[in-house]
What does this fold into?
Amino acid sequence: MMKSIVVTSGKGGVGKTTVTACLGRALARLGARVVLIDADFGLNNLDVVLDLESRVVYDIADVMENRCRVRQALLEVNVRNLFLLPSAHGYLGERITAQNLKAVLKSLSATFDYALVDCPAGIEAGFNRAVGACDGAIVVTTPHISALRDANKVVTLLTSYKITPTLVINRVRGDLLADGKIPSMSEIEQILKVKVDGMIPETDGVYGFRSIPQKPFDMLAKRVHTGTGEPFDPAACYRGFFGAIRRKIGKTEY
It folds into this structure.
């Protein structure tokens, strides 16, 4: 049975869409068949992150209004077993309801193992539409107080949908984590009362979906897929004698 997971965040700019794309790639590398659905109809850019914007012919609104079949709208990413269902644009997207989205997910359930639904940041109508159609949730945040406070609001709302989310902490500075200058994984779990499944390091100067280090997402995908393993530790390379040297020279090895 396909598992539908909404990927959400309390605020914009925390890397939610990139996490969606990279987690999808990592799950596909494990052999799962994965469809990414862009349900952020206002600021949709999952196709841009995946470098597929020039290939979009049909989108999710075309599927829902019977202008094409769902398989005609799917775009195959340059990764085996990974596909994208592009977002609708403008007012067309706003007419889509949770029931519409749920119907699309049902039509995909015989083909895919996972549907990752990238929804708008915040807790407005777009959030409720995407969450109402899914059976699981990942909340993406950064280890900063304002982002954690917004993530806590999202976690609280998800419980009203009877969904127990997990967390992905994105853009973690390993040197600051090693020095205790930002909250640790266990401290964040205590603050939000939610399990952390992934710790993704800050990667200064790394741009593009295919350039982002895969190891943190491979470890996240294993947690999502099998429930085993530990989250990546961004501070590991900054501990000990050589870690102190790396902190001084600003070198990372992810």
Summary: The first strand starts at residue 3 and ends at 8. The mean pLDDT is 90. The first helix runs from residue 16 to 29.
